[in-house]
Amino acid sequence: MYEHDVIVVGGGGAGLRAAIGAHEAGADVAIVTKLHPVRSHTGAAEGGINAALREGDDWELHAYDTVKGGDYITDAPAAETLAQDAPDNVVQLENWGMPFSREEDGRMSQRPFGGLSFPRTTYAGAETGHHLLHTLYEQVVKRGITVYDEWYVTRVAVSDEDDPNDRECYGCVAWDIQTGEIAGFRGREGTILATGGDGQVFDHTTNAVANTADGIAMAYRAGVPIEDMEFVQFHPTTLPSTGVLISEGTRGEGGILYNSEGERLMFEYGYATNDGELASRDVVSRGELTEINEGRGVDDEYVHLDMRHLGEERIMDRLENILHLAEDFEGVDGLENPMPVKPGHHYEMGGVETNEHGQTCIDGLYAVGEVACVSVHGSNRLGGNALPELLVFGARAGKHAAGEDLGEPEIPVGKTADAEGIEESDVDFPVEPGALAASSAAVSGDSPEEIVETAREAETERIERLLEKEEGVNHAEVRSKIQKSMTANVNVFREESAIEDALETIREAREEYQDVYVADTSRTFNTDLQHTIETRNVIDAAETIAMGALAREEFRGAHWRKEHQERRDDEWLKHTMISWNDGTPELWYRPALLEGENQTYEPKERHY
Amino acid sequence: MSTQTPDTDETDPQAERMARKEERAAERDEASSKPDVGDDAITLKVFRYDPEVADKQEPRFDTFHVPREPGITVLDALIYARDTYDSSLTFRHSCRQAVCGSDALFINGSQRLGCQTQVADLNDSDTVRVEPLPHREVVKDLVVDMDHFYDQMDAVEPYFSPTEEPDGEQLQSRENREKIKMSTRCIWCGACMSSCNVAAGDNQYLGPAAINKAYRFYFDEREDDERQEERLQIIEQEHGVWRCQTQFSCTTVCPKDIPLTEHIQELKREAVKSNLKFW
Ligand SMILES: Cc1cc2nc3c(=O)[nH]c(=O)nc-3n(C[C@H](O)[C@H](O)[C@H](O)COP(=O)(O)OP(=O)(O)OC[C@H]3O[C@@H](n4cnc5c(N)ncnc54)[C@H](O)[C@@H]3O)c2cc1C
Ligand code: SF4
Ligand code: FES
Prior knowledge:
The complex is a heterodimer of chains A (608) and B (279). Chain A has 608 residues and is α/β, with parallel strands linked by helices. Chain A contains 16 helices and 22 strands. Chain A has helices at 13-24, 59-69, 76-95, 128-142, 214-222, 249-252, 265-268, 281-293, 312-318, 320-330, 386-401, 448-468, 475-489, 496-513, 527-551, 569-572; strands at 2-9, 29-33, 49-50, 110-111, 121-122, 146-149, 151-158, 169-176, 182-193, 226-227, 232-238, 256-258, 303-306, 339-348, 351-353, 365-367, 372-373, 423-424, 493-494, 560-561, 574-579, 586-591. In chain A, 64% of the residues are buried. Chain B has 10 helices and 7 strands. Chain B has helices at residues 13-32, 74-84, 147-155, 174-181, 191-195, 197-201, 208-218, 225-236, 249-253, 260-277; strands at residues 42-48, 60-66, 104-107, 110-113, 127-131, 138-140, 143-144. A 5-stranded mixed beta sheet of chain B has the order 2-1-5-3-4. In chain B, strand 6 and strand 7 form a beta hairpin. In chain B, 44% of the residues are buried. Classes of the chains: A alpha/beta (608), B alpha+beta (279). The complex binds flavin-adenine dinucleotide (FAD), iron/sulfur cluster and FE2/S2 (inorganic) cluster (FES). Iron/sulfur cluster is lined by residues 186-192, 208-209, 212, 253-256, 258, 260 of chain B. Chain B: Its cofactor is [4Fe-4S] cluster; [2Fe-2S] cluster; [3Fe-4S] cluster. Chain B: One of its GO terms (biological process) is tricarboxylic acid cycle. Chain B: Belongs to the succinate dehydrogenase/fumarate reductase iron-sulfur protein family. Chain B: InterPro entries: 2Fe-2S_ferredoxin-like_sf, 2Fe-2S_ferredoxin-type, 4Fe4S_Fe-S-bd, Beta-grasp_dom_sf, Helical_ferredxn, SDH/FRD_Iron-Sulfur, Succ_DH/fum_Rdtase_Fe-S, Succ_DH/fum_Rdtase_N.
């Protein structure tokens, strides 16, 4: 068994920042990650980091934009913490040497982004995430923080009390991809999940192959409620053939969207007559898809994003990476031609329920970054708000796990008896969701070490079973079935019968998964085994997305429902919560918190 | 790395099962060579090796036929082969967009990223030959051990560390940011190191990527002179910049177009200047 004060699962931006935070607070911290840290998908972020750094801007404006962008189910204490802590975190990155783009006077550059009332998106070319990730990793190396790279975490080690709120997390179980060793990791003070997003649930995504919702599924099965999963962001400008992202920065700098008639669609068809291309992402994605569905798409598939008028000099200075991406992944020269773009899966607003210290309802278990739902993005994330989120809440969770006092949290977690305003859901699902047979991630034991050890034994058994099974279904078939169904049925436009179809397909996939086997017999670098384990996580995440999408009978932010074309504040100012409940999932609601430090965020109609 | 191998001589049930699985895998390989994937299918020849699996202990090449889709990349072809024919085919990949640096491979005789290489752009687009990066220890199939590469990166103290902690936002001129811009693009793919003859002969040579990392900090005006001196000392050591024989192979293969050889040359000049100063 490996032992440290704090174990961080994941070496992307969130995990690295959490580890540095814990280290600064004096803890012995280790990162356990399935990819080497610099391979994490944070490196793909392009546009920038929102922070109210400059005169004329302040954190209250940033918080307001965030709550409005989230269509008023963002929790105010989360948005305010984000906005207050972001400036220091960005300056911190600068102090760690991050090569931000610069103004003539030598200060860090900021640019406009969708839904922002001030150009506060701080950037490093169109490759901000790459620089952020490498800068944080450099600081991890500098501090000598231990990194177990290419170790795959399969489960968290949590005790087995009936009520998840009484459970404790003592660490996790991981498997060394290179050697096949399965080991327990004891986190004496805390275990922080920072495993990133769930893009593999869809088949057209800006996410990496490694974004398989591992953390969501592990926390869910351990008893932590999963929040607001139906809020999936579809980014309006992805390359049609691969899903590679063309940054919102392209529109921020002045890029224009045209339909096949050469019309400036955002204005021409009234999708956003004030902000046009820079309306919030959900608005632009729906606009584009409506054009395509109504026959004004190019090749019936996409629209055009034109940046040629910005001129070569400006493009080279601020958007050079966009030229490379369009050239390498779509064969288009953005200086000569407009770039084809269409909406694609991009970001999961929902995730593991946490408070503003990154804590879940299970003592000792934290979640930060895209895997978590604090909730700072509500029903629609503003571009440039995920990177500050992972910095702010990563640092806080790291420090808190290391024992630093951050005060009483304002955001409640867990389905506790005394929690205010909790409601049960009465939604009917076409098929039973959840496990096929009763199952629980909890394990018993008398001491923390024993619990980690029994969890390790259980995982060893699961892995042996997969390896020994001689024939059956290949996980890739199951995964592809989920991806196709989710993309067809739970996409930008959603309707009841389609979501029900998806739930039925997910059920079938679960049944087929019972019969998966791993053809590769080797213990050395067995990616067949890794992907097979990941696919179960993809199934769990897909199911929670579809369940939430069916339950939420309104149109809010990224969640559009054909039968329910209105935002219904009287009934739906609340979060969708799903508890695994040892295999028979329970859906319930918790009210959104709109009470801020100095103001109440009154829901207003969202106009761009 | 584990060296245990399934012992097929004994009648241990697990070993038997493993042997049967391997047989079936071999049958699938066989099936995969039947071209039912269109007349102009791509012939993908992939290096295979696994220290633990009986018939893969001797390195060999497997052939897969992959349908020729417009724009298909070498990584797409590998994924197709794996998901269609043989799920034990092993290679690293993640971002699919040339930023995670996982899939530097030896493709038709040169170091490239699988995801950034379109089959149609290869000199021979009918037969694509994919091997692990040369001069690296092979772990399995296309996966090489990257530890040595990471060690060399660590050796140049790859982190910003001015003598005094900055207080608030530091200013940096646009010119200076531009000066280090290319050097900050490195994605740690290891292509350069694998292409370098000097590195192949001298295991301790820092190599182009690490020296480029040193360049990135050396020329960053936000670090002070004292740090600069220390950085020069690191790259001037026996296995540092002076080893480079300006063959440009690293510069040729770098997927991020970093002018590596130029950067190394520039640091050599800095070292000379600094030595003259102390004469
Ligand atoms: C193309 C693109 C562009 C974007 N641009 C922007 C932008 O401009 N601004 C902005 O604010 N946001 C942007 N975002 C969103 C933002 O980049 C992500 O939300 C954020 O980087 C996620 O960081 P993370 O650390 O949570 O996850 P990741 O960076 O994905 O890291 C996850 C880590 O967890 C590890 N891991 C996962 N599962 C396991 C497991 N089972 N065991 C062990 N380790 C595991 C992985 O190895 C990895 O190290 C963008 C996103 C994309 C996809
Ligand atoms: S310098 Fe270029 S080739 Fe070398 S590791 Fe970096 S990106 Fe790869
Ligand atoms: S898959 Fe990330 S660089 Fe190719």
